[in-house]
Amino acid sequence: MSTDVEHQTAAEPQAPPEPTLAGYVAQFDDVPSLMHAAEKTRDAGFKSFDCYTPFPVHGIDDAMGTKPTRLPFIVLCCAAMGSITALALQFFTNAWDYKYIISNKPFFSIPADMPVTFELTVLFSAFGALIGMLALNNLPRFYNRIFLVDPFQKVTTNGFFLGIESEDPKFHEEDTKTFLNSLNPTTVVPCMEPHESAALPKLLAPVAVFLLVIGLIPLVLIARMRAIPSDVPRIEILTDMDFQPKAKTQKASPVFADSRTMRPVIAGTLARGDFYEDVAFSEGLQPEQAENVDRSMLLPNAKNPDGTTFNLSTVPWVTELPVEPTEDLMARGQARYNIYCAVCHGMTGKGDGLVSRRAMELQAGSPGIGTWIKPITLYDEPIRNQPVGQLFNTITHGVRKMPGYASQIPIQDRWAIVLYVRALQKAGSATIDQLPAEEQQRLQAEAN
Question: What is the pTM of this model?
Answer without folding.
Answer: 0.46
